[in-house]
Amino acid sequence: MRYVQIDTESDPGSTSFPSTEKQKDLSRLLAEELRSMGIADAHLDNHGYVFATIPSNSRRNVPVICFCAHVDTSPDSSGRGVKPILHKKYSGADINLPDDPSQIISKKHHPYLEEKIGDDIITASGTTLLGADDKAGVAVIMDMAKFLMEHPEYPHGKIRILFTPDEEVGRGVEKLDMKVLAADFGYTLDGSELGSIEDETFSADGMEVIFHGISAHPGFAKRKLVNAIKIAAEFLKAFPTEHLSPETTEGREPFVHPVYMQGGAEKAWVELIVRDFDTKKLKEHEDYIKHLAETAITKYKGARVEYKVHEQYRNMKEVLDQHPDVVNHAMEAIERAGLTVRKSHVRGGTDGSRLSFMGLPCPNIFTGEMAFHSKQEYVSVQDMQKAVETIVHLE
Fold this sequence. Notes:
By secondary structure, the protein is of the alpha+beta class. Helix content is 26%, strand content 23%. The protein is built from 9 helices and 17 strands. Strands 1-2-8-3-9-16-10-15 form an 8-stranded mixed β-sheet, with helices on both faces.
């Protein structure tokens, strides 16, 4: 609850790294708290990464494990002025958020709450997100570190702790030096439902479609002006609504999604994200977007269009299938914590997506964070504590 009150919202429009300096406010605090536990090498580097090492106390030669969480919160909803509220022994009734009466967390819209009756639930107050994504993961790792430092009799291998910035804007490990991290495999703590482990994510590309029109003074524009804004609007109007859109897909269904539009009469551009669990199909979706754009400009003589595509991340399963023990050990640890394993997939990405392709096989473990990126975000204290227990068993 302390961590979520520190504003760490990242900025997709920024070119700096991290995208906002305020993310370091929390990272600096975490490094200080780790040092106060007796973890001598805990530090914040110039890029905003927090590194720390809990030395091995095992007589066996075991792999080095990294536990990772991100400090930033999504720009989809404000992270400034978060007021966390602890709802003890949740009764099952609707949770009314006091600062905005229209924000009601109900079992109807959040069916997972049915499983949380009796738990202690943390929410925000109704005007901001909570930030459990991923400060719940941060808290879980910090609690794990505190437990191990206070219980040296508990055997474990060498543990590397990593807190990253900018995960929410897709740049979380962009500046990470894997030689400095020096781990054999890792786990992100950025999952949701109790007992879940995720070994599969979307593969993702970003795409920009740029429409070029012809500028002319509007008072003298007849047969001269070709308005790029109107072309872009026609392009967007052609997008499907019953399939290939986030609001009408689920499970392993792919989507293409316009996320930003800007421009004027002479030039307008649309930024999109392209998502599919099958990496090979990304090009098929991108070709479909190009087809919609080419169709839109046929009505506008003299107009032209160009495209830019860049890779964002790839499905971690492509790497994790080559290292089945990494997932199997996590499933065993979940069971040792007395839980039923929920093996699932992420309709998005995690730092683990990119870390896996950077040489650190890295599935995602639950923290209890739910309804992320929204004002109705919540997390169960008991779910977080079970996440701590799970990763302690992993060591």
